[in-house]
Design a protein that fits this description.
Layout (H helix, E strand, L loop, with lengths): L2 E4 L15 E8 L2 E8 L2 H9 L15 E3 L5 E5 L8 H13 L6 E5 L4 H4 L9 H28 L6 E4 L2 E4 L4 E4 L4 H5 L28 H6 L14 E6 L7 E6 L1 H4 L4 E7 L2 E6 L2 H9 L2 E5 L8 H12 L8 E6 L11 E8 L11 E7 L2 E6 L4 H12 L6 E5 L15 H12 L5 E4 L2 H6 L7 E9 L5 E10 L28 E7 L15 H18 L4 H12 L2 H14 L10 E9 L2 E12 L2 E12 L6 H20 L5 E2 L2 E2 L17 E7 L16 H13 L24
Parallel strand pairs: 1-29, 5-6, 10-20, 18-19, 22-23, 26-29
Antiparallel strand pairs: 2-3, 3-4, 4-5, 7-8, 8-9, 10-13, 11-14, 12-13, 15-23, 16-21, 17-18, 17-20, 21-22, 24-25, 25-26, 27-28
Length: 739
């Protein structure tokens, strides 16, 4: 797959420290130099106390970012979750660059949850590199300065005359040199600089190079990588839970006699989320659960089907429902005045989507009095730690959370409710002193909710005589993914709010309707952008078509009016790389989409044809502006993965309800793109000296509208709902069944 870096945009100068003052701690412990930054902030002090430590945690391999061993190996502690996105390598590369260590002698370990040492450990919003850019650079640069000062004192030379490269400190004038290992003791006695000298991006030798590759590939290729499913503890029991088949359903009564007769089943009991079965093996737990006789109380359960819910959403958007709106965008005076002249009406439906990572939900927990021990691929370790403490009625500092890599997540392991962790802790309370491994099957997870919410968008656009938008009115209907009452539902309209496509409009009025009912929703990869990108990008192509203008040039006019130079640069590069003006073979068409998400601008062009009504995507050209590209190879991998993930959802993805019961519970009814269906993805990175922005999610949103716009070019038919291939979707509204 082609990957390239193009020429730079304008730089924003050198990078300084964050507004929070950073304190460097260095010590020599067990023959290793330990270095780490700790932010001084009032909540940090509270967190340190709750974590069982003081305001200055004792340095250790888990309490500092950097450890340099006596043999010269550099170990970097990763406080973020490794979900398959390769963040461990990116963060390690930032430190390694400033430290001038030997990348081939750098390894990474995962940090336990420790608020006092690391602050909030939450991986999400594609922010790991962006958030830790300053702290990782400062940690590496300060450690380097300690070695330089140690060498300068030993050789009696000015520090400015000393160079460091690949873990070797050198003074060219005297011909003297020493490896990090030779200077450990002397370096540990140096006072670390509070404001270390950072490299200019022009001096980078590692960052931005193809050398920055994942460091877990061998372990994953050989099966040596340990996930929660692999964890074994002495005398451990396996737990499975029978949940209500309907959202909002409650346990009425159950009969455990048959389950207890299954060989290996140890205990069966009710918890607040269902009926738990404890057994000696996974197989026994599953057989025991299947043998349960359960009666559910559906008094407060969701009983509607997806078609009913979509009709409910349509009524809400038309003002016929029972949900009061909130404004999310208002531009100009008299924005509520009636439209007149040339008005275009658009409507879009989006279904629920499951996360469906390869590793289903699982967790290991053991409780001994006040102490709770957990092993999990935690997405939001700090939140999981607090929720576990509340569940076990102990202090967060009494919860030891070992964070290990997760086999995917896409947001499912990052719930504020920490649902599966809390469930595991509840079960562990039943058998104190004995480890419990909770396992959710694929069916449990697919039917268990916390989906990307279904949504409906109704948009009216009044155009000017030149075909450009003059007035916008948007009614969006979407459940909130944040379980906080009365909190604005802003994530549902990200990607619409502050759009550059409003640049020629005199008025804009956006309203968000937030219905509430038992189906549970949460964060899904790219969150609101996963549906709003389709809304805005497909509308723009339709407006361009009505104005008889090229979709790319129509966008450029709006970007210019908005002064959006980043989008213009990405668009120009995208047109060049995709050969936009070169005709394709008969039956093929190109579709374009450009979005900004998580601080990153991504453009994609998809080459599409239709085969018996089925979109075939053979090639996707992507251009990304993500600031400094720390790991270009991993950025390209994220783009490829984002295209595959987004294309799967666009083609097939739909979780539907029939009388309140989920119909798609495994990959037979919720398919994903297979290898033979995956297009060639070419990623081109805009070279930049701006600080890095997010890359884990921005590759997902553009692919659906890019394909829809290619279909529009082929057929003249607009896409009004996803997925394109309706499959089991209750609305049966995907292409080519749409009107």
């Amino acid at each position: 797959m082609k990957r390239s870096v193009t020429e730079p945009q304008t730089a924003k100068g050198r990078f300084g420290m964050t507004r929070r003052r950073m304190i460097l701690g260095g010590s020599l412990l067990g023959g290793a130099l330990l270095v780490g930054y700790v932010a001084t902030h009032p909540m940090q002090v509270v967190g340190a106390i709750l974590s069982g430590g003081g305001t200055d945690p004792e340095p250790s391999a888990f309490g500092s970012f950097i450890r340099i061993d006596a043999d010269g190996w550099v170990t970097i502690v990763n406080k973020q979750q490794e979900l398959g996105q390769g963040i461990h390598a990116g963060l390690a590369a930032i430190i390694t660059e400033e430290l001038d260590a030997d990348w081939d002698r750098v390894r990474v370990i995962d940090a336990r949850s420790n608020f006092g040492a690391y602050g909030t450990q939450v991986t999400g919003a594609s922010n790991s590199i962006a958030t830790h850019w300053d702290s990782m650079r400062n940690a590496g640069a300060a450690a380097r300065a300690m070695f330089v000062n140690a060498a300068a004192q030993r050789w009696n030379v000015p520090p400015g005359s000393i160079d460091v490269r690949d873990g070797v400190v050198t003074h060219a004038g005297s011909g003297q040199s020493a490896a990090f290992a030779d200077l450990l003791e002397a370096a540990s006695r140096q006072a670390p600089p509070q404001v270390p000298m950072l490299k200019d991006p022009s001096a980078y030798r590692l960052i931005g190079s193809e050398r920055v590759r994942r460091k877990d590939s061998l372990a994953k290729s050989t099966g040596a990588q340990v996930y929660t499913q692999d964890v074994q503890r002495p005398n451990m029991l396996v737990a499975m839970v029978a949940h209500s088949p309907r959202f909002g359903g409650r346990l009425a009564r159950f009969d455990a006699s048959d389950a207890l007769n299954v060989r290996g089943v140890v205990d069966v009991f009710a918890i607040d989320t269902g009926v738990a079965v404890l057994a000696e093996t996974t197989y026994a737990a599953r057989l025991g659960r299947e043998a349960l006789r359960i009666e559910w109380d559906d008094t407060d359960a969701e009983m509607r089907s997806s078609s009913d819910l979509f009709q409910y959403y349509h009524d809400i958007a038309e003002g016929r429902g029972d949900v009061q709106p909130a404004d999310f965008e208002t531009i100009g005076e008299n924005a509520d005045a009636p439209f007149e002249g040339d008005v275009v009406d658009f409507a879009f439906d989006f279904p629920y989507l499951a996360h469906a990572p390869m590793e289903t939900l699982d967790c290991v927990a053991e409780i001994n009095g006040w102490d709770v021990s957990i092993t999990s691929g935690a997405h939001m370790a700090t939140i999981d730690q607090v929720v576990a403490a509340l569940t076990a009625r102990t202090l967060p500092g009494k919860v030891d959370l070992e964070v290990i890599p997760a086999g995917g997540s896409f947001g499912r392991r990052g719930l504020p409710q920490s649902d599966y962790v809390a469930e595991c802790v509840r079960i562990a309370q039943r058998v104190q002193g004995r480890a419990i491994k909770l396992i959710w099957t694929r069916e449990d997870e697919m039917a268990g909710g916390y989906y990307r919410p279904m949504s409906h968008h109704r948009v009216w656009v009044q155009t000017r005589s030149d075909g450009l938008p003059e007035r916008w009115r948007i009614h969006s209907v979407c459940q909130s993914v944040v379980p906080i009452p009365l909190m604005p539902n802003r994530l549902a309209t990200e990607g619409i709010s502050h759009s550059p496509y409003f640049s020629t409009a005199t008025t804009v009025k956006g309203k968000i309707f937030t219905p509430s009912f038992p189906v549970v929703c949460s964060l899904w990869r790219s969150v609101g952008h996963s549906h709003t990108a389709m809304v805005m990008e497909h509308i723009i192509d339709q407006l361009a078509r009505r104005a008889d203008r090229d979709p790319a040039e129509y966008r450029r006019t709006l970007y210019q009016a908005a002064g959006d130079t980043r989008r213009i640069a990405v668009l120009d590069e995208l047109l060049l790389r995709s050969e936009w003006d070169r005709p394709l073979e008969q039956g093929w068409a190109r579709g374009l989409a450009v979005i900004e998400a998580f601080g990153t601008v991504v453009g994609q062009v998809a080459e599409v044809r239709l085969e018996l009504g089925r979109p075939i995507v053979r090639r996707v050209v992507a251009v990304v502006d993500c600031g400094i590209a720390v790991a270009p190879d991993q950025i390209a991998a994220q783009m490829e993965g984002g295209v595959g993930f987004g294309l799967s959802a666009a083609l097939f993805g739909a979780v539907t309800l029939k009388d309140g019961v989920v119909q798609e519970t495994n990959f037979d009814s919720y398919p994903v793109v297979r290898m033979n269906e995956m297009p060639l993805v070419e990623t081109h990175i805009i070279k930049s000296t701006n600080r890095p922005t997010g890359m884990g999610e921005p590759g997902v949103p553009p692919i659906a509208p890019a394909v829809a716009n290619a279909i529009l070019a082929l057929t003249g038919v607009a896409t009004k709902s996803l997925p394109f291939l309706s499959g089991n979707a209750a609305t049966n509204a995907g292409f080519p069944m749409q009107s």
